[in-house]
Amino acid sequence: MKRVWLAPLVPLYRAAAALRWMGVRPRRLALPVVSVGNLSAGGTGKTPFVIALAKLLKAEGLAVDVLSRGYGRRGTTVERVIPTGSAECYGDEPLLIARQTGVPVYVGARRWEAGRLAEAGRDGGGGVGLHLLDDGFQHRQLHRDVDLVLVNSEDLGDWLLPAGNLREPLSALRRATVFAVSVEDDAAVERLRAIGLGQPVWRFRREMMVPKVAGPVYAFCGIARPEQFFDGLERAGMTLVARKVFRDHAPYRASDIRALEQFADRMGASGGLVTTEKDRVRMGDLAAGLGEVPLLTAGLRIVLEDEAGVSAWLRDRIG
Fold first, then answer.
1. Is the pTM of this model over 0.90?
2. Domain topology for 4-206+303-318
């Protein structure tokens, strides 16, 4: 969404970003690093893409781990994610990745230190290994062997923060090694080529896994682009009696749970409450406070169109 009245502040943001990255010297890890990132401030599907890529490479026999900032966590130490832990300890996205992939996930603001911890914890260190860097396109402190960037038509027509949603100008895409674009977004590929970017493009599909429900539901979420979630539910045939939006990564409180339950009852949401996987992770044990109101979770899965080609390309790239 463009906020035209904030356009005069864009040059200030651009200058501040340039100063932030000036003089940064990336540090190398012993193992190759494959970054999954984007230009915009959330909402492009980085987490499900990391999950899909981690599962693919794990199935191919590679020793894969994930390095993440752990946005929203309370702690500041660098540590390995325990899948039975909480979003408060590790952040919702790292916890979801760890639970769904079964690969080691390490969190820390300094991703180089997280990578060092990961390499120290490798069992015997044998086999081909690599790090997946979650949301790493703007993390210049760590050297990447592959910079994969998710792009879409909306971002390619957007403005820089704070007037738009872009963290960097489109010129930053020259740093990308490979792009990932939805099969439904041919316009994005055409735009990339039109501005002279000839890097390889991986195509993927988004599949929303929606639970079956008999009655209308009350949908809620705290993600970057909530309208995508709500629209996906309706396309899947759900009837939404109401929608509730929390801020992105917002922690849930017991009072939030009570309010959700009471409003669902008032609105006649006989099908219960439905939310995203990340929101369910953040709710943790508080979900038990819903009593008899059903809590449903809708997931988002990324399916690569050419898994064999992606795997072969990566193996060739990292040697």
1. yes
2. Rossmann fold (3.40.50)
